Amino acid sequence: MSYLYAIAIGSNRLHGRFGRPAGVVEAAIARLDQEFGLFDASPIVLNPAIGGAGRDFANAVALVESDLEPPSMLRRLKAIEREFGRRRGKHWAARVLDLDIALWSGGRFRSRGLRIPHEGLERRSFVIEPLAAIAPGWHVRGALTARHFAERLGRRSRV
């Protein structure tokens, strides 16, 4: 069975080969296409870092197709992060590449190390807005879609 995954992509560190964070995100999208088959990818957006992560982030969301179940998909994504030079460290630290499963076509998933939808997804404009750009009708929580949450976050930031 084939699943569709929404993969949140982020970078806020220079990479020796891919350069600035936006270049790292572009390279990660190409790597996801090579590994899984890219269905679509959002534009890359720049966002302020959260917590102690330092520099601003380049973020995007890619939609990929895969036969992998979520735990296996997460292991593959972590392997790609390591290929890009990611090392385990502080939770909110700067990182060369961060790949997270935001959503998948299989609905909710819960295990010890993985929750889909990703925790706090609907409050993270750096994921919801790129997701809404390429999959506005994807249901995030119940009947509420990516477009709904992007509009809600947009109203909140204008207040």
> What's the overall geometry?
globular
Number of domains: 1
Secondary structure tally: strands? 9
Assess the beta-strand content as a share of residues.
25-35%
CATH C-level category:
Alpha Beta
CATH superfamily: 7,8-Dihydro-6-hydroxymethylpterin-pyrophosphokinase HPPK
Report low-confidence residues grouped into runs of 5 or more.
none
**Helical residue percent?**
25-40%
Main beta sheet? 5 strands, antiparallel
Q: For the terminal residues, how far apart are their CA atoms?
A: 44 Å
Q: What features would you highlight for this structure?
A:
159 residues; alpha+beta; Alpha-Beta Plaits; five-stranded antiparallel β-sheet; two-stranded antiparallel sheet; 4 helices; 9 strands
Q: Which secondary structure elements does this structure contain, and how are they paired or packed?
A:
Layout: E1 3-11, H1 21-36, E2 38-41, E3 45-47, E4 57-66, H2 70-83, E5 98-104, E6 109-111, E7 114-116, H3 125-134, E8 139-141, E9 144-145, H4 146-158
Antiparallel strand pairs: 1-4, 1-5, 2-4, 3-4, 6-7, 8-9
Helix pairs in contact: 3-4
Overview of this protein structure:
- With 159 residues, the protein is an alpha+beta fold.
- The protein has one domain (3-122): Alpha-Beta Plaits.
- The chain has helices spanning 21-36, 70-83, 125-134, 146-158, and strands at 3-11, 38-41, 45-47, 57-66, 98-104, 109-111, 114-116, 139-141, 144-145.
- Strands 1, 2, 3, 4 and 5 form a 5-stranded antiparallel sheet that branches. Strands 6-7 form a two-stranded antiparallel sheet. A two-stranded antiparallel ribbon has the order 8-9.
- Helix 3 (125-134) crosses helix 4.
- The mean pLDDT is 88.
